[in-house]
Amino acid sequence: MNPGHNRKPFVGGNFKMNGSRTMVKEIIDRLNALKLNDHVEVVIAPPTLYIDQASKSVGEGISIAAQNAFNCTKGAYTGEISPEQLKDVGVNWVILGHSERRDIFKEADDFVASKVAHALRTDMKAIVCIGEKLEEREANQTKEVVIRQLQAVANNIDDLKKWENVVIAYEPVWAIGTGKVATPEQ
């Protein structure tokens, strides 16, 4: 991204592992009925099972994101989805490095970075999640953690122009589901 370039404001909604066909339809119907601001990029991430349904029913001005993608085009990776497959069904965004993927599925910074790099090579846009756990925050390691997470991604992106297709989502792990919210200063 060139210095001084202003990114369009971005609003994203991740359904996580929630929903049904009915719920996805209701949410999309509500979004489609809104007068969305052309100067704001809106992206929703339904569960993988409902991506095709969402892609076919979402209105103009709303993009669909996958909640994850693998770092290979194809192969014997049961349960995984490649960026190429997502592009094939019209999905141009993917969420990578979410704290739940890092924690529950033990996705290391370098693995997340390889998935980001592969998605970008596939001309997808990536929402890269970063954030620290409560114990890291209490140990004053917030900067160290988020710099480490971002550095892994930066080490895998060799073309500065690719950063135009990256949104960094800072979500401190200690704030998820706790009612605690990070301040703008944090």
UniProtKB/TrEMBL annotation:
Stated name of the protein: 23782_t:CDS:1
